[in-house]
Amino acid sequence: MAKAKNKMVEGARQALAIARGGKVKGFRVHEPKDLDVRAIRAATKLSQAQFASRFGFSVRTLQEWEQRREVATGAARALLRVIAHDPAAVERALVS
Amino acid sequence: MAKAKNKMVEGARQALAIARGGKVKGFRVHEPKDLDVRAIRAATKLSQAQFASRFGFSVRTLQEWEQRREVATGAARALLRVIAHDPAAVERALVS
DNA sequence: TTCTGTTATACGTGAAAAGCGTATAAGCGG
DNA sequence: CCGCTTATACGCTTTTCACGTATAACAGAA
Lengths: 96, 96
Hints:
The structure is a homodimer.
Chain A: H1 2-22, H2 37-44, H3 48-55, H4 59-66, H5 74-85, H6 87-95
Helix pairs in contact in A: 3-4, 5-6
Chain A binds a DNA duplex through helix 1 and helix 4.
């Protein structure tokens, strides 16, 4: 039950974070936490190893994300969304 | 939102065209570790708070990077490079 | 001028989580 | 059988980030 409690606390903490971020003036980017990393990679038809090395992280980390054992950090989620939305832009930036 | 997902998958599918049309398989992206995060942010003319919330991380983390107290992870570095190279593309991906 | 309310930036502390190397193993097409 | 892809365990290193405090630079009010 210590576990359940931690979960609740964590949930509350996140809600707080969202509430805070939501009121930043101007534009706050809405970030869905339920990113389907596997689907994004699948669309690229790259293997885990290829996808990982191409975009700058380890295979191990990618697996953690795909298998939902760990959640990608904010920046990583943002990157994944850009890859999903416009992979060409990412390729261009990283190749140059 | 199944729609949103399809959109992302569709977008990612473009990677294919590039991956195949361009170089051969498995080219690796080189990543300079000495990223000048402050300069990248300066180019966007955003405050630390704005920059951080817009791209998905905390102000504190951004400061760690700018002051070189900590190094951004691979995915974060990749994101920063994309922001430096084509910030509009990132905005587009995150706003949708 | 002086007080006062932003706004931007710096940083100590510490818990939680992510990042990731290495090793091992199973499934599969060739 | 071999090589490639993916899954998983173990475990150590590093980052992330909340919370709090502190310091300037400014702008407008008193």
